Amino acid sequence: MFSQDKPLKGAAVLVTATLLAGCGSLLGEGETEDAIVIGTTSTPSTLDPAGAWDGSWELYRNIYQTLMHFPNSSGSPEPDAAQHCGFTDTVSSVYRCVLKKDLKFSGGNPLNAEAVKHSFERTLDIAADSGPAQLLQSIDRIETSGDRTIIFHLKRPDATFPLVLATPAASIVDPAVFPADRLLETSEISGSGPYRLQDYKDGEFAELVRNESYNGSAEVKNTGVTVRYFKDSAKMVEDLKKGEVDLTYRGLTPEQITDFEKNRTDYPDIKLNEVYGTEIRYLVFNPQHEEVSDPAVRKAVAQVVDRKALVRNVYKRTAAPLYSMVPGGITGHTSAFYEEYGEPDVEKARQTLAQAGIGGKVRLTLWYATDRYGAVTADEFGEIKRQLEASGLFEVTLEGREWRELQKGIAEGKYPVFGRGWFPDFPDADNYIAPFVGEENALGAPYEHKVLTGTLLPRSRKESDRGAVSDDFGRAQEILAEDARLLPLWQGKLYIAAHDDIAGVEWCIDSSTIMRLWELDRKKSW
Q1: Of 125, 182, 461, 487, which is most buried by a Cβ count within 10 Å?
Q2: Is 497 helix (H, G, I), strand (E, B) or coil?
Q3: What is the four-CA torsion angle of 418, 384, 401, 227, rounded to 10 degrees?
Q4: pLDDT of 20 strictly over 60
Q5: H or E element in which residue 87 lies
Q6: Taking the alpha carbons of 186, 188, 193, 197 in that order, is the dihedral positive or negative?
Q7: Domain range summary for the chain, segments of one domain joined by +
Q8: What average pLDDT score do residues 425-436 get?
Q9: What is the pLDDT of residue 33?
Q10: Alpha helix (H) ranges present in 314-372?
């Protein structure tokens, strides 16, 4: 269990507790016979892997293939579309993969080395504001040898590159369908993953059927899955209780989770599965805006925010206080913000502002997504506003925007303070630091730091033994705490509510907390 009273440490676990009602599913438009129906509030922003670095990856993992993948209960990547991969030099700067024989896309075209090269180069060339090009920035050039060999020449040593190749950022797409110079604008896609996208309606559903031409590591245990996208978690839970949804993933509110936990006898035919998650929530300060350009303002906020009260009052202890951008359960995690700021202390915050010559109330506007991380996000920011204003040091205005609009504004650097969530690309401390720093990062707020971006991260990427770089990541987390440009708030647990005729729930989440739909199956007998 998480401790709510101490900085979080721990290892990944999955616990199952028996809970809720009804079984079977009622098929709607766009659903295959006996398809397992998944409910989620995490709606894809685009079907093109070059255009999304967000929850769209949940769908990509199941319809596109990658060279590498994360096997069950492991954060060490293994070949998927590749037959084998590995560095060919001693400094982790040249990476070679050989594809399996006779791979092809669901539309029938061959998946060869040129298709892989096309997939990576278009993501880098398009460089969509909301896309994952930054995650591939270590690539200098790609060459092919014959139909099956791909060689990645990296700009600098990067021992995390095999991990990157296991993420949906490295999804392989059909060159005949996905143009080299722009994002795909239709839902007529062709992938080589475990499923084929048979039907799709933006914001409503994705109908997946088994891809009979798939040749990869996954053992597909069902005939098809229909994913239903909900804007309202209340409607999602209502449909779960009625049996119109078999399983819910992402979007349950703390109140709904607590209801399931406390009223097990009311819902005897549903199990609530609690997964130790590596999802985090945090605030971003953009110093290019005058109101947060002074480090004293950012440090005062860090000194006032009470994470324990936040997870207690808003999340009903379904999350845990987080004192570092690197969460518990990830090698290299520390509690740098706790060490730097300790317990919330208004007087220390007042002194910090006074020493910087800042008097009177500091005015802040906090921006957040209204439709991305669940309905409780508004309550979360309401609690942060309450805490800051209760200190007497801040006057806070809240502004909520739909995700796509907020995402656009973030990319344009519009907001001085905004909330973000982060689901890991891969289970390594690097992935909780590197995407947020550097001249071009995922936050639209350049963050250059000579030691952090010039020494610590480059040095850590030369080390293939990821456990050996804890000291570098420890110092990196100290720098993040000192600068207070990113403020970690909490680390989430994942909850999956499923009817008890659904098997495979314990295996359906990979080490980067993305759902592998192929692990789910409907139990055949009772």
Answers
A1: 487
A2: strand
A3: 100
A4: no
A5: strand 82-87
A6: positive
A7: 64-186, 278-493
A8: 89
A9: 53
A10: 336-341, 346-355
List 275's β-bridge partners, or say none: 14, 494
DSSP per position, 95-156? EEEEEPTT-B-TTS-B--HHHHHHHHHHHHHH--TTSSGGGGTTEEEEEEETTTEEEEEESS
Segment 332-359 shows an average pLDDT of 97
Instruction: Give the pLDDT confidence of 378-391 residue by residue, as tens digits.
Output: 999 999 999 999 99
The length of the chain, given as a count of residues: 526
- As a CATH number, domain 278-493 is 3.10.105.10
**Tokens linked to 49:** 């892997």
pLDDT at position 107 over 70? yes
Where are any strands of DSSP class E within 163-223? 195-201, 205-210
Helix (H, G, I), strand (E, B) or coil at 278: strand
Q: How far, in Å, CA of 410 to CA of 477, rounded?
A: 23
Q: What whole-number distance in Å separates Cα of residue 488 and Cα of residue 307?
A: 9
For residue 350, with 0-12 CB atoms within 10 Å meaning exposed, 13-18 middle and 19 or more buried, which class applies? middle
Domain 64-186 sits in CATH 3.90.76.10: yes
* Residue 257 in tokens: 């989770």
Tell me the average pLDDT of the chain: 89
Prediction pTM value: 0.77
Rounded to 10°, the helix 470-483/295-304 angle is 100
